[in-house]
Amino acid sequence: MNNYIMTFIVGGAICVIGQILMDTTKLTPARILVVFVTGGVILGALNIYDVVIKYGKAGGSIPLPGFGCSLAKSVMKEVDKVGLIGAFTGGIKGTAGGITAAIFFGYIMALLFNPKTKG
Fold first, then answer.
1. Where are the transmembrane segments (predicted)?
2. What's the total number of domains in the chain?
3. SS3 state at 23
4. 119, part of any domain
């Protein structure tokens, strides 16, 4: 039960930060997305985001900073393994499963429901 509460708290805190940024700054949602992913990369590379994931579980690993942390960890692992070329291939290898799932399930939802563009 404690894991669910911590997941909710950590994931909710990340969402609250995003909402505060949208409400109090002129940043667009796309720029906030970039801030979250970049922040996750930096915190992941410094091994700081690992603490967030340790306590927040999915609440820390699923949102955008978790994706950034995954990118950083994958790149560092691949650079250690194959050298400089790993800086270009590590992120792709490490996050391919998540990206593929997002595209696949997004496509399935588009087939099941009637998506409309904002207008």
1. 6-22, 29-49, 94-113
2. 1
3. helix
4. no
Instruction: Note whether residue 103 is domain-resident.
Output: yes
Domain residues for 87? 2-112
> pLDDT tens string for the chain (119 positions)?
689 999 999 999 999 999 999 999 999 999 999 999 999 999 999 999 999 999 999 999 989 999 999 999 999 999 999 999 999 999 999 999 989 999 999 999 989 998 777 76
Cα–Cα dist 103/4, whole Å = 27
Alpha-carbon torsion angle 78, 84, 98, 100, nearest 10: -120
In a domain, 118, yes or no: no
> Within a domain: residue 36?
yes
